[in-house]
Specification:
Elements: H1 2-16, E1 21-25, H2 32-48, E2 51-54, H3 83-89, E3 93-96, E4 99-107, E5 112-119, E6 127-130, E7 140-145, E8 160-163, E9 174-180
Parallel strand pairs: 1-2
Antiparallel strand pairs: 3-6, 4-5, 5-9, 6-8, 7-9
Helix pairs in contact: 2-3
Length: about 180
């Protein structure tokens, strides 16, 4: 059902020639079935390179949707964080792409992120990828194909990885893969 609804909204966006923003999804508990649901929704969003906003950060006021013992926000009733839910939502993603993105995927089983894009050498800003230590506590290994299509990384600063197109490269498509050390 979720996938059919998602696909129908993609058809609507194409028909109306507009972009989308997925909002207020995931008002669900912190159990393994719910985390799988979040991951499936996030996989769909990644596949369409769609921006999103989660249902609710924290319950700051009397809200009928968050009054049960099962917390649908990112916090438990005692104020502790719902780690599995937060981890599922902090998966790597491209915040900005110096070109036209073609493909973005995160394999949550192996913590492997892949981004493919057609570089635009007129863009002088970097491709920015958000990475999180919850997924990569021992650091990351970054692979770029074709080799030399991006300038060498001078400094990796969690949570953002900035990669600049190499103006001397002649790559038609660049693939970036991030995986755990």
């Amino acid at each position: 059902m979720e996938d059919e609804l998602f696909l129908s909204r993609m058809v609507d966006m194409d028909r109306m020639r507009t972009v989308g923003f997925m909002t207020e999804f995931g008002s669900i508990p912190n159990d393994s079935v719910s985390i799988q649901s979040i991951e499936r929704i996030m996989d769909n969003a990644d596949g369409e390179r769609l921006s999103w906003g989660y249902w609710s950060y924290k319950n700051f006021y009397l809200d009928e949707t968050n009054q049960s013992e099962v917390r649908t926000t990112l916090y438990n009733i005692n104020g502790t964080i719902q780690y599995n839910k937060v981890k599922a939502l902090t998966r790597p993603f491209a915040q900005a792409v110096a070109g036209r993105s073609q493909y973005m995927n995160f394999d949550s089983v192996n913590a492997v992120f892949t981004l493919k894009f057609v570089p635009d050498l007129n863009i002088r800003q970097p491709t920015v990828i958000s990475i999180n230590k919850l997924w990569y506590p021992n650091g990351v290994r970054i692979t770029v194909e074709p080799e030399g299509s991006l300038l060498p990384i001078k400094h990796l600063s969690y949570p953002l990885l900035e990669l600049f197109n190499n103006p001397r490269a002649n790559a038609e498509t660049i693939a970036i893969t991030i995986q755990p050390n």
